[in-house]
Structures are given as structure tokens and as C-alpha cells.
Amino acid sequence: MSPCWRRTPSPSSSRAGAACSRRAAPLAGSGFIKAIRAECAQDPALGHEVTSRFLRVTLHRLRTTRTRLLDIRAQPEFLA
46-69 in b/e burial notation, b at 16+ Cβ within 10 A? Predict the structure, then answer.
């Protein structure tokens, strides 16, 4: 099954979520991760590109989380 994702942005915040519009199989159990690792091991340029993109997304999420936590600490009424 191929995942069919749609983005569901919230108009009142910078956060966005995603929902699957039909049944999707998890990638971890499908051998997909092993196949990607094998491809990356055979092609170092591909491995570098995959790693760079993954780290770029991860860094953005960490920075966003840090900013939100600092905002909450500065204005505790956000917790209420």
C-alpha cells in the first residue's frame, strides 16, 4: 500500500499536522528502511544527501521546540 498523506495546517498557529486518508503500512516493518540503508551504503553520495536532508528537518524541529519552550517559560499563562 502506498501512503496517501494530506497536510492539515491550523490557521491559528504555525504548527501543522498530517492525516492518512486511507490505510497505510508502517515503513519500519516493510523492509523499506533496510533497502534505503543498503542503497546508501552502495552510493555514498546518496547516503550523504539522505543524511543531510534528515538532519536539516531534525534541526528545524529542535529549534522550533526550543523556541516554543522559551516562549512558555517567558509567559507561563500559555500553560493555562
Answer: eeeeeeeeeeeeeeeeeeeeeeee
CA distance 19 to 70: 28
Instruction: Name the domain count of the chain.
Output: 1
Which residues lie closer than 8 Å to 7 by C-beta, 6 or more apart?
A: 16, 17, 18
Domain extent for 71: 5-79
Its pTM stands at: 0.54
At 23, is the secondary structure helix, strand, or coil?
A: coil
pLDDT digits 0-9 by tens, 7-46: 554 444 556 667 778 887 777 666 888 888 999 999 999 9
